[in-house]
Design brief:
Bound molecules: flavin-adenine dinucleotide
Radius of gyration: 22 Å
Largest sheet: 4 strands, mixed
Distance between the termini: 37 Å
Strand content: 5-15%
Structural class: alpha+beta
Strand order of the largest sheet: 1-4-5-8
Oligomer: single chain
CATH architecture of the largest domain: Up-down Bundle
Order of helices and strands: HHHHHEEEEHEEEEHEEHHHH
Number of domains: 3
CATH topology of the largest domain: Butyryl-CoA Dehydrogenase, subunit A, domain 3
Helix content: 40-55%
Length: 418
C-alpha cells in the first residue's frame, strides 16, 4: 500500500490552504451571522465560488472528470488531504463545489445519466449553477434498510407519478436547490410478493425538479435544536408527475444505484471529519496550555494529557483507514472498497463525538456555546452516526464480511488446538 500523494496534490494543498486562510476564514464570522438568522449566506458563498473557480479550486472530488467538464481531476487518495482542509470550516466545501449531497449526486449522474439528463442537470451541477438533494429516508419506515422505502413511483403513460413523504433531506431548502433525486417503488406488486421476491429489485430513482407541481418542502427539521440553513427537510410528494425520461438507469435499479452513490460520498464525509477532529485537537491543546487550575496549566494534569494523546493516536488511526479506503477505490473501484468504506464511516462518526467531547470538557462551559465551533462539531458528529446509515448497519457489513471469510476457511484454526 502506498499513500504518497501526487505532486499536483501537494500544489493543490498549498493553494487550498492559502485560499482558506485569506478568503474563507475571514468570511467565517459573516457566514455564521447570516446563518444564525435562518437565511442562507448566498451572496457571500457565490462571491467565494467565483474566486475559487478562478484559482482552479473546483470539483476536486470527481476522479472521472472528462476533458469537457470543469474542475481538477484528482484521485480519491489525492482528494483526501484537501477534503481534510475543507472540513475545518464545514460550510466551505460548497465554495469549491465539493459539498454533500451534490458530490454523490454528481457521481451518480456522471455514471448513469442519459445525454438529456446530463445536459439538463449534470452540467449545471458541475458548473455550480444549481444544487440538489437526495430523497430516500421516510418517516414511516425504518430507512436504515432501504428496501423498506415506500414512496410510490407509478407509471402512467409517458409519465411517472410520485406519491410519498421523505425527511432529513439535506440541502432541500438551499436557495439554489433545483433537483431532488427521489427513491421509490416502481414495482408495487412484486414488492408485496413476499418470499422469493428480490427485495433489492423493486426500487427506482427519478429526477424531480424542486418546482414540480405537488412537491412541497414541509419544514426544515432541526438537528439537536440546530437549524441548518441549507436544510435537512421534510418533503411531501402529492401526485408529482415527471416524464418517464427522468428515470435514472432502469426500473428496479434504484437500490444498486443508491449504493453506488453512497460509497465515495461516505468517504468524503470521513475525510472532512478528520479535519474537524484535528481542529478540535488544536483548540484543546491551545486551551490546555493557556488556562490554569490548582497551580498548573490544564495541560499538566495527567487526565488532560491522556485526552490529548488518545485523540492524537485515534485521529491518526482513522486517517490511515480513510486513506486505505481511498487507495482501494482508486485501484480496484468503489465496489471493492465497500467493507473499508463501512469501517471508516463507523470509525469516523464515533471519533468525532469522542474527540470533540474531550475538547469541550477542556474548554469548560464555554465549550458548549457558539463562541467555539465545538458544539456544532459535536452535533454534526452525533448526526453522522445516522446519516449515510447508522453505526449498526456498518458494523453488520464488517461483521458479515469477517464471518464470510471465516466460513470459507472453516476448520483452518484446528491446528491451534491441542
Ligand atoms: C443530519 C442528517 C442528514 C441526513 N440526510 C439525509 C439525506 O440527505 N437523504 C436521506 O434520504 N436521508 C438522510 N438522512 C437520514 C438517514 O439516512 C437515516 O436517518 C438513517 O438511514 C437511519 O434511518 P432511520 O432514521 O429511519 O432509523 P431506523 O432505520 O428506524 O433505525 C433505528 C435504529 O435501529 C438500529 N438498527 C438499524 N439496523 C440495525 C441492524 N442491522 N442491527 C442493529 N441495529 C440496527 C440503529 O441503531 C438505528 O439507529 C439524514 C439524517 C441526518 C441525521
Amino acid at each position: 500500500m502506498d499513500f504518497e500523494v501526487s505532486e499536483l496534490c501537494g500544489v493543490m494543498q498549498e493553494c487550498l490552504g492559502h485560499f482558506m486562510k485569506h478568503h474563507v476564514l475571514p468570511a467565517n464570522a459573516e457566514w455564521l451571522r447570516v446563518a444564525d438568522t435562518g437565511a442562507y449566506p448566498l451572496a457571500l458563498v457565490e462571491r467565494l465560488k467565483r474566486q475559487a473557480r478562478e484559482e482552479a479550486l473546483w470539483n476536486l472530488f470527481l476522479p472521472g472528470l472528462r476533458e469537457d467538464e470543469p474542475g481538477t481531476r484528482l484521485s480519491n487518495l489525492d482528494y483526501a488531504p484537501l477534503a481534510e482542509i475543507m472540513g475545518r470550516v464545514p460550510w466551505s466545501a460548497e465554495v469549491f463545489n465539493c459539498s454533500a449531497p451534490d458530490t454523490g449526486n454528481i457521481e451518480l449522474l456522471h455514471l448513469f445519466a442519459t445525454p438529456e439528463q446530463r445536459e439538463r442537470w449534470l452540467l449545471p451541477l458541475l458548473e455550480g449553477e444549481i444544487r440538489s438533494c437526495f430523497a430516500m429516508s421516510e418517516p414511516d419506515v425504518a430507512s436504515s434498510d432501504a428496501t423498506n422505502i415506500r414512496t410510490s413511483i407509478r407509471r402512467d403513460g409517458d409519465h411517472y407519478v410520485v406519491n410519498g413523504r421523505k425527511w432529513f433531506i439535506t440541502g432541500a431548502s438551499h436557495p439554489n436547490c433545483r433537483l431532488a433525486i427521489v427513491m421509490g417503488i416502481t414495482d408495487e406488486q412484486a414488492a408485496q410478493g413476499g418470499q422469493g421476491a428480490d427485495r433489492h429489485a423493486h426500487h427506482s430513482l427519478v429526477l424531480v425538479p424542486m418546482d414540480a407541481h405537488g412537491l412541497e418542502v414541509v419544514r426544515n427539521v432541526p438537528i439537536m435544536q440546530h437549524r441548518f440553513p441549507e436544510g435537512h427537510c421534510e418533503l411531501l410528494f402529492r401526485d408529482v408527475r415527471v416524464p418517464v425520461s427522468n428515470l435514472v438507469g432502469h426500473e428496479g435499479e434504484g437500490f444498486a444505484l443508491a449504493q453506488a452513490r453512497l460509497g465515495p460520498g461516505r468517504v468524503h464525509h470521513c475525510m472532512r471529519t478528520i479535519g474537524q477532529c484535528e481542529l478540535a485537537l488544536d483548540l484543546m491543546c491551545e486551551r490546555a496550555l493557556g488556562r490554569r487550575t490548582f497551580g498548573k496549566a490544564l495541560g499538566e494534569h495527567a487526565n488532560v494529557q491522556d485526552w490529548i494523546a488518545h485523540s492524537r493516536v485515534e485521529i491518526d488511526q482513522a486517517r490511515l483507514l480513510v486513506l486505505r479506503a481511498a487507495w482501494l477505490m482508486d485501484r480496484q473501484g468503489n465496489a471493492a472498497a465497500r467493507v473499508d468504506v463501512a469501517a471508516i464511516k463507523l470509525v469516523a462518526a464515533q471519533l468525532q463525538t469522542r474527540v470533540v467531547d474531550r475538547a469541550m470538557q477542556v474548554f469548560g462551559a464555554m465549550g458548549l456555546t457558539p463562541d467555539t465551533p465545538l458544539a456544532w462539531l459535536w452535533t454534526w458528529g452525533r448526526a453522522m452516526r445516522f446519516l449515510d446509515g447508522p453505526d449498526e448497519v456498518h458494523l453488520r457489513t464488517v461483521a458479515r464480511h469477517e464471518l464470510a471469510r471465516a466460513r470459507e476457511h472453516l476448520g483452518n484454526t484446528a491446528v491451534y488446538y491441542r
